[in-house]
Every structure is written in C-alpha cells, then in structure tokens.
Write a structure and sequence with these properties.
With 426 residues, the protein is α/β, with parallel strands linked by helices. 43% of the residues lie in helices and 16% in strands. The protein is built from 14 helices and 13 strands. The strands form 3 sheets. Strands 1, 2, 3, 4, 5 and 6 form a 6-stranded mixed β-sheet that branches. Helix 6 (189-203) packs across helix 13. The longest helix has 26 residues, at 374-399. It starts with a helix and ends in a 5-residue tail after the last helix. The model has no long low-confidence stretch (mean pLDDT 96). It binds nicotinamide-adenine-dinucleotide (NAD). Nicotinamide-adenine-dinucleotide is lined by residues 143-146, 190, 225-231, 250-252, 289, 303-305, 325-327, 352, 355.
C-alpha cells in the first residue's frame, strides 16, 4: 500500500538535500505543525450520524494558511497532512502570501441528498470556525474532491453568521459562487492553469525535442483520468483553444476511448446524465478505466486523485509526457521508474497551482470589496503560471534535476526564508 504522506516527504527530502538547510531546520520544515480531528453528530433521517473530519496546518510561515477541503470516503489524517504540505510549497512556488493547510471530511457525498449535505457541511464548518480553522486572517479553505462552490457558499454563510460584524467575512473561504462574493473564473481556474502550464511546455523547443516530439501543442493527443472540476475544465480548454485531441477519459467506474477524438461537452453531458460512460455512443467503453493510463498518447493527464501510477503500472506507461493535474498521482517509486524510461513529468505543485492562484485573487477581491473582471483574472493567472514555469525550469537546468525536485527546491527555499523572517524557529 502506497503512503501518500511518506512519499511526499521523500520527494521533499530529496530536494532538501540539494539545499544548504541544516538537518534540524529540514525536520521542522517537513513536519506538519498541527492537525485537528473533529467528530460531530448530525441529526438525519430520524437518527444521529457521527462524521469524522480533519483540518491540517502544515506551515504558518505566512498567514492565512490556505488549502481545499475534500469530501471523500477514503480520506484520512495522513492524506490530509500530505495535501497540506503540498499547499505550503505550491503557494511558495507561485509566490502567494499563504501558508499551507488542507481539510477532509470522511463521507461519500453520493450517500446523502442536497439538504443533508448542507446540514453536514454547516456542522463541520461550525466546528472549524470556532477554532479559527476557517477565518479570513488565519485559515481559508477552497473546493477540492467532492466539494464545489455550493459547499463554499454554505461555509461562508456559517462564518458570516458567527462573525456578523466582520466586513471581511466573505474572505474566509474561496471558490464561492460568483454571485455570492466569489470570483468569476475561480471554478475553471485549476483546469485553466493546467492549460497555461502545458502551453508553456510546448513553447520550449528544447523541452519538446528532449522527448522527441514535433513542435506545437495543436493536434497532440491526450488521455484524461478524472472528469470532475479540474479534468473537465482542463480538457475543455485544451481541445477548444489549443486544438489538442482528447482520445480517452477514465472515470472510477469505467472509461471511454476513441482515437479519432472525443467531444468534451458531449461526453460530460452523457456522464452527468447517466453517472457512467457505459453505452456511450461515440467511443468504446472500457470497464476498467485505469487501463486507459497505459494506452499510447502524447500527453497523459491524471486529474482524479493520488497514487494512481505506482510501481505496479509505471513501467507500462507509454506516453512521454505526464502533467499532474491531480495532487500526488505518481508515487515516489513510480516517479523513479518513469524517469528511467525518460517520461517527462510536470509536477502537481506546479501544474495545478492555478486553483490557489485564483483563490488568492478572490481573497484579495473580497478584502478590497472590488470586483475583478474575467479578463483580468485570466491575464493575471497566465502571468503567474508562466512565471512559475520559468522559475522551475531554470532551477531544473541550473541544478540538473527533474522539474519536481526543482519545484520543491524553490518552494522549500521560499518557505524557509519567510519562516526565518517570521522568527518561526526561535
Ligand atoms: P472532483 O471531485 O470535481 O473530480 C474528481 C473526479 O475524479 C470525479 O469525477 C471522480 O469520479 C473521479 N475519480 C475519482 N476516483 C477516480 C479513479 N480512481 N479513477 C478515475 N476517476 C476517478 O475533484 P477535483 O476538484 O477535480 O480534484 C481532482 C484532483 O485535483 C484532486 O487530486 C485535487 O486535490 C486536485 N486539485 C483540485 C483543485 C481544485 O481547484 N478543485 C485544485 C488543485 C488540485
């Protein structure tokens, strides 16, 4: 069984060895500052149901700390701590003034109707708010697996009720609906960021030729895993704006394949209506969606969850380019196998940082009480992602390391500098 937290720490450790950081400080940087476990009861269906959740703060070198909340039956404390750590480095790589945090609630959202989910979300929020684990100045959540702008609106509403005179109350959470103090463009942001990062890759002829691809992003084929917020938006923009060809979509309950190309919106409508790709008329149904990861394509985009490429299937991966839209999709051992096979990996902490970049814009907008336009959001996101890609690529060349290790070196050094200035080790 792969351990996401152990693997995250192994990636960090590898990068730490290439910095001048002492063993003691390295240990402090790796260690998650605190994790709060909450178990709360909710009256539902004439009974009381107990739910378990976590909010982890990895590093408070900058506040507020920032990171999503996922609703997922398989989430657990170590997963949440790993995700909180990724947030510290991710925020540093794109230079947003946040520490790293993450939350999780152990629940299968499909087991409950909308009213029940609302009640559960509000109860979970109350528990976190009263401990300052949701707060505009201390800790600001956002959507992740199993949550969306709807849950963020309920969280914001709970905070407002508990702090009615706080004029910045709406900055307690990002990813809210645009008409509820959210930011137009936040919902698409992580997928949009994946698009911008992939575009940057294809603008670098040296990188493109290093994997023996012809130049240009247009007409390159890709296979996607996870057709949710991140996967849907990334594949929509890459096909519609950049002329890429989506040839496979893997979901948890099966996938579809068509080497002539799939239409993203048609596939999405079908999946939302039927809850599965079975009998999809414009592609071949593949019962075990994970098999699609092994098919030939120019770019593989895992956008579902962690540990989907491990030492068990890494050697069978046929693409030469993977962009990690999900957090932690490739295990530490799988990364080694892929690197040996000359597969180029654009790591999660760079590739999916567009979500938190735009969350930062939303937080700023909420505190400015000034509405940004979609053009401005996209322009600033593009600038942020391009700069981050350049920083990481330059570090990779300078230190002769993978893009992942380069991204961690940058993240670690920036966390360290901010932490020292904040006197965190005194
Ligand atoms: P989501 O819940 O909207 O979508 C996830 C999708 O993946 C769902 O359609 C689900 O059915 C599918 N899925 C789950 N397990 C699968 C499996 N084993 N095989 C194939 N498909 C599977 O979640 P999301 O917000 O799109 O997040 C996806 C990933 O991106 C996560 O790793 C998350 O941490 C990361 N991420 C999300 C954001 C964001 O803004 N939402 C930002 C950064 C990173």
């Amino acid at each position: 069984m792969n351990n996401f937290l152990t693997d995250t720490n192994r990636f960090v450790d590898k990068a730490l060895k290439l910095t001048s950081i002492s063993a003691g400080l390295a240990n402090k940087i790796i260690t998650c500052n605190s994790t709060y476990t909450v178990r709360f009861g909710v009256r539902l269906r004439n009974d009381i149901y107990t739910f378990e959740g976590w909010r982890s703060v990895h590093s408070e070198h900058m506040e507020p700390t920032k990171g999503g909340i996922r609703f997922d039956i398989s989430t657990h404390v170590e997963e949440v701590e790993a995700l909180a750590a990724l947030m510290s480095y991710k925020n540093a790589i794109i230079n947003v003034p946040f520490g790293g945090s993450k939350g999780g609630l152990k629940i299968n959202p499909k087991d409950w109707d909308e009213k029940e989910i609302e009640k559960i979300t509000r109860r979970f929020s109350q528990e976190l708010i009263k401990r300052d684990l949701i707060s505009p100045s201390q800790n600001v959540p956002a959507p992740d697996i199993g949550t969306s702008s709807r849950e963020m609106a309920w969280i914001a509403d709970e905070y407002r009720k508990m702090s009615p005179t706080d004029i910045n109350a709406s900055a307690c959470v990002t990813g809210k609906p645009a008409n509820k103090n959210g930011l137009i463009g936040r919902e698409e942001a992580t997928g949009r960021g994946v698009q911008y990062i992939l575009r940057e890759f294809f603008k670098h002829d040296d990188l493109v030729s290093s994997i023996k691809y012809s130049s240009g992003i247009s007409k390159k084929s890709f296979i996607l895993q996870g057709f949710g917020n991140v996967g849907y938006n990334a594949s929509k923009f890459l096909t519609e704006d950049d002329g890429m060809k989506l040839i496979g979509i893997a979901e948890y309950n099966g996938g579809i394949y068509n080497e002539n190309g799939l239409n993203v919106n048609h596939a999405k409508k079908f999946f939302v209506k039927h809850g599965s790709f079975e009998n999809y008329p414009k592609g071949n149904f593949v019962k075990d969606g994970s098999l699609l990861l092994k098919r030939k394509c120019d770019v593989l985009i895992p956008a579902a969850r962690e540990n989907v490429i491990t030492s068990k299937n890494a050697a069978d991966i046929k693409t030469k380019l993977i962009i990690e839209a999900a957090n932690g999709p490739i295990s530490f051992d799988a990364h080694k196998i892929l690197a040996k096979n000359k597969v180029f990996i654009i790591p999660d902490i760079l590739a999916n940082s567009g979500g938190v970049a735009v969350s930062y814009f939303e937080w700023v907008q909420n505190r400015q009480h000034y509405r940004w336009t979609l053009d401005r959001v996209r322009q600033e996101l593009d600038h942020t992602m391009t700069q981050a890609f350049e920083d990481v690529w330059q570090m990779a060349q300078q230190s002769n390391v993978s893009l992942r290790t380069a991204a961690y070196i940058i993240g670690i050094n920036r966390v360290r500098r901010a932490a020292e200035l904040a006197g965190f080790a005194t």
